[in-house]
Predict the 3D structure of the following.
Amino acid sequence: MVKNMLSVLKLQEIIFNMYKLFKNIIDKILSLIFIILLFPILLIFIIYIKIKTGGSAFYSHIRIGKEGQPFKMYKLKTMYDNSDEILKNYLLDNPSEKLYWEKYFCLKNDPRIIKPFGKIARKFSIDEIPQFINVLKGDMSLIGPRPVPENEEKLFSRESILLRRTIKPGITGLWQISGRSDLSYEEKINLDLEYINKISLIFDLKILFKTPMTVFNSKGAY
């Protein structure tokens, strides 16, 4: 009986290692293709943001990755440089928006966003394109739980933290195709954990194929 259980566990380990190998290959190939195809669109936004702000069109933020390793996650800059100050003052002046922020960690009419291109970039996830570089570097995967900053990770239960750290974070995932920013923060966390518990190549492909439709629909994107 014990021998049979060990055999099953060994088989599961082999299958999971094969899954990780195939997923890594798919991640690298598709990320390279997406960068090439989407670069002309990205270039338009880069030029606009540089003209509008006079600074870099990109920014990076430290997020927690697999096994708790911190990494720089890249994004197209869609907010003003003094965004923290803008947000603080806005929430002080708008108590109802403060309540919304505390529940969803986002705002439908975010005053920090560079308009109009910043809003368009976020609506259609153009600001996420630089994260394909993170995938090529091995920091992220195309599909996985969204990477969070250390201060947000501390809000999770210990079990959730350990589970999230078993795999690479992703550009898209289960909550992105299930409502995006219309979901509460707790719902997003639960959907990330559901993805990890159901993880498989078929499940990844299902999420991957549904993502473009979600992006073009732009529902729940602010």
